[in-house]
Structure formats: structure tokens, C-alpha cells
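User: Please predict the structure of the protein below. I'd like the answer in C-alpha cell form so I can feed it into my own downstream comparison script.

Assistant: Understood. Taking the following sequence of 529 residues as input:
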Amino acid sequence: MTSQTQSDKDRSLDRVVIFDTTLRDGEQCPGATMTHEEKLEVAALLDEMGVDVIEAGFPIASEGDFAAVNEIAKRAKNSVICGLSRASPKDIDRCAEAIKPAKRRRIHTFLSTSPVHMKYKLMKEPHEVYEMVIGQVTRARSHTDDVEWSAEDGTRTEHDFLCRCVEAAIKAGATTINIPDTVGYTVPEEYMALFKMVRERVPNSDKAIFSVHCHDDLGMAVANSLAGVMGGARQIECTINGIGERAGNTALEEAVMAMQVRNDVLPYWTGIKPAMLTRASKLVSAVTSFPVQYNKAIVGRNAFAHESGIHQDGMLKNAQTYEIMTPETVGVKQTSLVMGKHSGRHAFEHKLEELGYQLAANQLEDAFVRFKALADKKKQIYDEDIEALVDEEIAHAHDRIKIISMTVIAGTMGPQSATLTLDIEGKHITTQSTGNGPVDAIFNAIRSLVPHEAKLELYQVHAVTEGTDAQAEVSVRLSEHGRSYTAKGADPDTLVASAKAYLGALNKLTSKRNRVPGIESRIHSTDVG
């Protein structure tokens, strides 16, 4: 009995809390803005996947952020729902209001502590910052007994001052202390030593859980996070696919699988269900329109692909020759089921499950209709075709502006022209425009129907699969008022895919407004041609 109790105690000490900030730090990534419905969908999956803490947003930032955090707090079943706040009382109170409906809730409040941040960002002296730490944690603690305090730019903070602030924060009631590598500056050995130093020097350090939050500016976010855990931290702050500001954050899937696969040297465990990692990756990629690089660890398209003859020979003899985990472990299922125009709804649904998707009934029906339409155009349907089709379905399910029909005239004798009919908030509107090429004509037509000042920052086309009948996948990024909005569109017709992608980005842009601007003045008959 005694040995069993000791074993349970050791296991609890090796438990690493997974704090997911996809909906907060991840969404701050330029172009990764999500709609309200998309945030709820991602949060529900994170909750189901076993994420311990979901940082749902920054409630003071906007009414939209507040509403999303508040609704996620109402719906969460298992996860702690966390909101971020700065040091001001107004921020903290607004955060507390947003997370109030949650069964388990946390306020995460932060303050810069490095010399460069205190001097140029806060414009305050260290003694003022020290007093603010006590004040902000005390205020947060008056709302909830689960308070996290972060020393922003902690890895560039003077050690003596960092220890003073950490001690004060714990004394004021902070239950989690985060020492983030805000600018991706540290290296593993240094970060591990930092946690050991703070935990040894701060008298009341045993009363709080220490947390790592690393950015990938030097490509070491995951390595630094794991080093921090080896230094005594027991919470990792991370995002799906590693999305986040600048070069991104620690990738949740990489940190989790590193501890599982190399448990011999990283003897820690989490509550994450690994088989849901690929599904989560696909969902976040779809709603943000941020593609996952093919060679991305764990969830990339090539993570379990082998082209080299030597590697293929080894795999045929024994998969362990070149794979350190099975695809099934992270939700990638191998299949020989061939999809085509004769495939039924049940086979299609089965294929989606194998690819890591779970769609609502209406989404499944829409996706199946589009699949059958695609199968009539293509002889062979690849997994990548289905993924592109479903990702687009997820990303554009709640669009307020949709394409109804389009006719383009192109060729050597310009100018090229496009006749376009859109469904804008339930109203069908048609126009005809010309341009310097067919794509320019299409985009001009869209701009005439939905006037905006957004700048086209990116237009990119690639084939989803091989062959002349391959689907085209187009990426478009629009920028307006300092914010970027990215979307993808897929279709066997490159011009249709281009229109879908542009409208996808425009939908994200207009979702920040109450209505599409000037719609009433532009309603007219759709009987053109």
C-alpha cells in the first residue's frame, strides 16, 4: 500500500499540464483570425482532446473576443477556461466577467519584467513594476482561486528582480507562475537552468506550478519547453500546429508526442488523446487557412511518407526501421479504400473518419454533394482531394458572401471579362467587370459588388494532386487597417478556386463589421444574360 501511494505521488509529480493558447496567442498570428463559430468548434475539440487549460481569448480586446470566451466558458465540459488580462483592474475585471460561466476558470494576467520592456514599453521603474505585480495578482485572486501570473520577457529579465516578482506573485495568491520566452531568445540549457534557479531561490516556490511559454524565433520552442519541464516546470503553453505571433509557438502535437515516444528520457505524461492530434491539426488549418507544411513533425502530410528506395525497402521489411511511432497513434489511418463516383455516403463518411474528420450532419451532406460533383469531373479521387474539399467546407460554412455563378472570357484578345453573381447575406447580386487577365477581372467584379479598401498581399496557386484534372488550391491574403485575413479555395477550375479564396478572405474581413457595407444600394436583378 505504501509503495502504491508513493508510485501515485511520483506519477502526479510527473504530470504535465497542457495549456493551449491556439485561440489567443495563435489567433494573434497575422491572417489567422477565426470567426465566433470557428472558435467554438476549435474549443470543443480541444476540450474533448484532453487539453487541461484552454486560453480562450483576450476579453478586453473586443466585444467579439469577450463573447467567444464567454460562450466557450458556458460550453466547456472538462477543461479549465482561461482568459488573458493585462495588469489594469479594468482588464482583470472584464476577464473575470467573461470566464464566469465556466465550471473551472482561470485568470491569466501578465506584466513585463525585463529592463528593455520596463524602460521602453511600460516606461516604469522596477519598484513600480513590483508593486503592480502584487496589485494585479491580488485583484485577480479576488475573482477566482486559480490565477496565473506571467513575467513577460522573462528570459531577458535580471534574475534577482525575476525572483522578487515571482515570490511576490505567489504570496499574493498566484497558483501558476509562467516564465515565458516571449521573443524566442533562449536555448534549452539556459532555460532549464532558469527554472532550477528560480525554484531554488524563491522561498515559496513549492506553492505554485511553474509554466513554460516559448516562441519559435530560433526554431527551438519545443526543445526549450521540454528543457523547462526538465528544470521543474509542470505546465506547457502551446498551440495546435505551432501557430502564433512571428515564427509561432510551441507545437502542442510535437511536445506531447516527444514525451510519449521518448518517455525513457522525458519521463512525463499528459492527459492528451494522441489519436485526435491529426484531426485537431486539420481543423485549425482549415479555420485559419494556414496550411501545414508538408514536412511538419507529427501532423505534416509527409510525416509518414517514404519515397527513398532504401527507406521503402526497410519499411516493407519492418516499419520500425524508419518510423518511431505508428501513423494510427496520432490519428492517421492507413486505408486501401478507393473513392470515386460510385462510392456511397457510408463509404465517404468512413473515409472522412479515417482522414481524421468528424462533421455535423449538414456539413457531411454538403461535403458529400460536393464530393460527387468532383467525382464526376475527376477519374481518380485522392485523399488530398477530399481533404481540400472538406477543409474548404469547414472554413466557409458560415460565410455571409458566397459565389452563385461565374462566367469568364479570356484569351489573347483582351480585355478579359468576368460576369459574377454573388449571394450577399441572402441577396443575389450580379455584375460584369474587365481586368488585366481573368483573375484580375474576377477580383474587380468582387470589389464592385463588395466595396472595400483591402490590399491583396498574397495570391498563390498550387495543384492538390497530380494530373491535368487536379484540383487547384488557391491561397489569398487581404490586408486592411493593419490586420491580415487569409483564406483558401479549392476547385478543379483554377478561376473558381481563385474566386472562392478571395471571397473567403473577404468574409473574414467583413465578419468584423455588422453587415457587408453598402449592400442595400447595390441590390438589383440577377437576370443577366
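That's the full C-alpha cell string. The first strand starts at residue 17 and ends at 20.
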